[in-house]
């Protein structure tokens, strides 16, 4: 077995590979850019090599620097993770030419499947179901429109060398094809150095289902079940699960056998994923093959008990697969939420900055469930503008889908992050969404269920009652602490704390009577009472305890006269008063937010790529004003209404912070 391997990646996946290598007794080498000098993967590895500036094109994507790092440290093999160089045939070949083992498929397999156009031709030759489309090179927007007209709308415009949602657009008309073609080519060129795109039929109401395959260098290939990845935003997966609630055993076997046939046709010899677009009737068509470890691989590991990173290392070393297809068993259900540094209330725009608080849920057993958190960050660390905004992958595994979802919801409630915006409120809301719980999924789920964007749900019903009880319990704990402050002035009578508490929560009013019964704080809301037990201490960002014996977690942050709470996908400020305080608080004036309607504000930290207007120009609603690039995505900012440009306060190349003024309107 290898004694030392280098991980040509960063963040969460680098840490993930290091964990398995450490368990196998293999030493690890990390590489890092200037921006990652203090990163977690650098700290975890046995050795670390600096490879250049923050820009990936000058560090993580430079093949020669990776090879030099291997030679300097004596690393015998390289695990590429996902992204960066993981699917570059030239990288695998360069390592081979230098006597270094690539922990991934052979260069020929990468070449065959890495090009999305050629991979579809290979799939068709292997009798794999394929989507109707044009697989030739498209030279111009006009050519793309002609092809789309022939195929029929809607169509998908996709980068040939693409992945991760980059260089991908859905078009419903000729105009959208022309615009999507330009954006897809531009993103493909900047992300992959290859601006070729192709067009194919977009399946209406589709589901994204993928098959995990595993092959060795002795001709053996097996499949490890499927993953449902239909919950997507901008073609980027957000929530994944395994198995899929759509498939039956017969369809699973058929998809698996086609995936294996394709893998064998290209002599595939590592972990890889064959992605399919599936109809609600269980029909399915080949989408692409990812010749690397997928971001969402943990859900497959949880239901199969197979460590895919370990298998990749063993296969790369030349070992045969230890499992046959008949020995692969699927156990229970796993759900994964991708925790991103982005603001779901502002169109999911990226957020950067320092992680002032980072307290993930405890990994390990949670009743019948299991919690796993794959991450590459730490409290006090920084989310950089240069790389993918992923913070962590939160995974729960349980005997049933319902139990796995419930465990995921509890774990999200116990996940505290402050200092940046993040999408935990959104994925928390998803876990409680009736359509998600019912398994009625499609890749259009988010667009269909949140057509006006996402706003923080207000607490209601039982959720609101729970949050009110938690707020009162926290306030009671603070009062208990106040009673024990030393050197207090003694008055003519002992202070008697008010036992009635009024909670104003999201516009609702709850009045609770507080009493103590042993270790429990009993809160009576009229005819309903809740026994609250918790060892929460003031200042802790997560409240954990039980309400009438049911385990509950909530995110808690102190505010003036109360707490900011997050629980079960609902978020609100809970102001806790005595009855007299509540009367007085109701008389206080409400602060009105400033009007920013005359300004175009930068919605995320990013770089201005283009200004599309001039001073004095009249613009119509929907017209492009400028383009801002952030975390490898190009974001075109549009006029919300008809207006005239009064001032332009930014220029191409400027780095802007959130809410920086770009344009002022008359």
From TrEMBL:
<dbReference type="GO" id="GO:0016042">
    <property type="term" value="P:lipid catabolic process"/>
</dbReference>
<keyword id="KW-0460">Magnesium</keyword>
<dbReference type="InterPro" id="IPR011053">
    <property type="entry name" value="Single_hybrid_motif"/>
</dbReference>
<dbReference type="Pfam" id="PF18140">
    <property type="entry name" value="PCC_BT"/>
</dbReference>
<dbReference type="Pfam" id="PF02785">
    <property type="entry name" value="Biotin_carb_C"/>
</dbReference>
<dbReference type="InterPro" id="IPR011054">
    <property type="entry name" value="Rudment_hybrid_motif"/>
</dbReference>
<dbReference type="InterPro" id="IPR005481">
    <property type="entry name" value="BC-like_N"/>
</dbReference>
<keyword id="KW-0464">Manganese</keyword>
<keyword id="KW-0067">ATP-binding</keyword>
<dbReference type="GO" id="GO:0005524">
    <property type="term" value="F:ATP binding"/>
</dbReference>
<keyword id="KW-0436">Ligase</keyword>
<dbReference type="InterPro" id="IPR001882">
    <property type="entry name" value="Biotin_BS"/>
</dbReference>
<dbReference type="GO" id="GO:0004658">
    <property type="term" value="F:propionyl-CoA carboxylase activity"/>
</dbReference>
<dbReference type="Pfam" id="PF02786">
    <property type="entry name" value="CPSase_L_D2"/>
</dbReference>
<protein>
    <recommendedName>
        <fullName>propionyl-CoA carboxylase</fullName>
        <ecNumber>6.4.1.3</ecNumber>
    </recommendedName>
</protein>
<dbReference type="Pfam" id="PF00364">
    <property type="entry name" value="Biotin_lipoyl"/>
</dbReference>
<keyword id="KW-0443">Lipid metabolism</keyword>
<dbReference type="InterPro" id="IPR011761">
    <property type="entry name" value="ATP-grasp"/>
</dbReference>
<feature type="domain" description="Lipoyl-binding">
    <location>
        <begin position="590"/>
        <end position="666"/>
    </location>
</feature>
<dbReference type="InterPro" id="IPR005482">
    <property type="entry name" value="Biotin_COase_C"/>
</dbReference>
<dbReference type="InterPro" id="IPR011764">
    <property type="entry name" value="Biotin_carboxylation_dom"/>
</dbReference>
<dbReference type="Pfam" id="PF00289">
    <property type="entry name" value="Biotin_carb_N"/>
</dbReference>
<dbReference type="GO" id="GO:0046872">
    <property type="term" value="F:metal ion binding"/>
</dbReference>
<feature type="domain" description="ATP-grasp">
    <location>
        <begin position="120"/>
        <end position="317"/>
    </location>
</feature>
<dbReference type="InterPro" id="IPR050856">
    <property type="entry name" value="Biotin_carboxylase_complex"/>
</dbReference>
<comment type="pathway">
    <text>Metabolic intermediate metabolism; propanoyl-CoA degradation; succinyl-CoA from propanoyl-CoA: step 1/3.</text>
</comment>
<keyword id="KW-0547">Nucleotide-binding</keyword>
<dbReference type="InterPro" id="IPR041265">
    <property type="entry name" value="PCC_BT"/>
</dbReference>
<dbReference type="InterPro" id="IPR005479">
    <property type="entry name" value="CPAse_ATP-bd"/>
</dbReference>
<dbReference type="InterPro" id="IPR000089">
    <property type="entry name" value="Biotin_lipoyl"/>
</dbReference>
<keyword id="KW-0479">Metal-binding</keyword>
<feature type="domain" description="Biotin carboxylation">
    <location>
        <begin position="1"/>
        <end position="451"/>
    </location>
</feature>
<dbReference type="InterPro" id="IPR016185">
    <property type="entry name" value="PreATP-grasp_dom_sf"/>
</dbReference>
<keyword id="KW-0092">Biotin</keyword>
<keyword id="KW-0442">Lipid degradation</keyword>
